[in-house]
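WP5 quarterly update. Target: Type IV pilus assembly protein PilP. Source organism: Pseudomonas duriflava. Length: 174 aa.
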Amino acid sequence: MKARILLSGLVLTILSGCGSGDDVSDLQSYMDEVRARPKGSIEPLPQFQPYEPFSYSAAGMRSPFQPPIKIDLAARQKGSKNIKPDENRPKQFLEGFNIDTFQMVGTLANQTGRYALIKGAGGVHRVKVGDYLGQNDGRIIAITDSQIDVVEIVPDGEGGWLERPRTLSLIEGS
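Structure tokens (predicted):
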């Protein structure tokens, strides 16, 4: 019973605090101040700059966390005018892609010869010795169970051409 009396007294005290005092002069003065402000004083929204996307163009560059490679210009291999790509031969499909995108995934052999399976350029492709792949006139010169040997013809930067050997190793479990 005592708890009910205390609770009702507390409720009456709270309610009496809400309604007591008819002094709203501070509210009236604030409203008068707002009404006295000149019309149209709202500032326009600031003009936002359109978003300009950033395209990262250093993906193909050397990692800054690896030491730079020192190139000895005197010992650098010179190209030859006798070596050059055959511009008259028809280009094969796999020459339209970078050689780094290819992975050797297996070999096949039958009565006609030995073939390698490479993954890249949107699928798995069968290649043989003498086929071309990559953008630097890379010609396949040998196929073994574990690798494909390719010779590319690249410019030396001084008007000549160099033959650069490359190897595509078998990727286990692919």
